Amino acid sequence: MLGTELGPALERAGLDFFTGVPDSTLSGLFAWLEGSSGYVAAASEELAVGLAVGAYLGGRAPAVLMQNSGLGRAVNALASLACLYRVPLLLVVGWRGHDGNDAPEHLLQGRATTALLDALEVPFAVLEPGRVEEGVERAVALLRERRLPAGLLVRPGTLHG
Amino acid sequence: MRRAEATAAVLAVLGDELLVAANGMISREAFACRDRPESFYMIGSMGLAAAIGLGVALARPERRVVVLDGDGNLLMGLSTLAMVGERRPANLLHVVLDNEVYGSTGGQRSISDRVVLEEMALAAGYLWGRRVEDEVALVDGLREALGTEGPAFLLVKVSPEDVPGTPRVSHAPEDLAERFRQAAREAAEA
Prior knowledge:
By secondary structure, chain A is of the alpha/beta class. Chain A has helices at 6-12, 27-34, 45-57, 75-82, 107-119, 132-146, and strands at residues 17-20, 39-41, 62-67, 90-94, 124-126, 150-154. In chain A, helix 3 (45-57) packs parallel to helix 4 (75-82). Chain B is of the alpha/beta class.
């Protein structure tokens, strides 16, 4: 199933510490991570970013998983910690409401997601169906080039299962 | 006991333990007292000291990690207690310097005067918890906590006085991160 390709692709790209808050968009990835000792559940997306920064300072290469609604929770952690201290962490963000077709609570967030990342000066790649490896490589290249956080946006339905 | 005195007491007992200091006066006092590569000073992201410390502790299980937190900081990121309790890192000591105010913004009251933070930590799963109110008890508590299996929580009641003229942390944030990351790696290879 496509959903389980993303985990191994992230691992192959060198990421070895995963944290975040579950999102149904990323359920395949979460299922793959559940069996792995490299995943630490966070109580909020803000705390997940803090945890990931700590893991980086301890020598790991972290990724933070979340739904786009959680990006707002993580704004200050990104602006005054991850970006400020130049921590190259990957944000894997489920992009609910990306096309205006979703439950009402996702619509404004869906419109705001890319603008929020732009405002924080966090570059991102968008994962295309069937091109998981390529999407991961683009996102990780952004991390490595700049030694700053970068995003990988995943639209609902891109990862099946 | 003034917070700066408590900070000095903590730094005096540390060898090469990794330290994460909360933003505001806590980092500034730690920096001014004794700057060291194993200290990570937060200058923003209030509320995240313990989450950062937990991340370091999980990444470096062979190193002792000390979080130097504040009451307002901890209250802002209180769910971190649950995260620490869940992971139960034996190498983590969480020290909270509790002056019951938000010192860096003008001394507004925090709610830690009525909330028993060390009991919350124990309820969350920390294996050791204590409250201390003077320097002798603080040093005893630190020694005991550093010699025991954690996670440990030490609440230190301090007065709200600031030391005038405490400098800001002068290192560039990215240099602080790299310096700390290097220090965290080095002892592991020793």
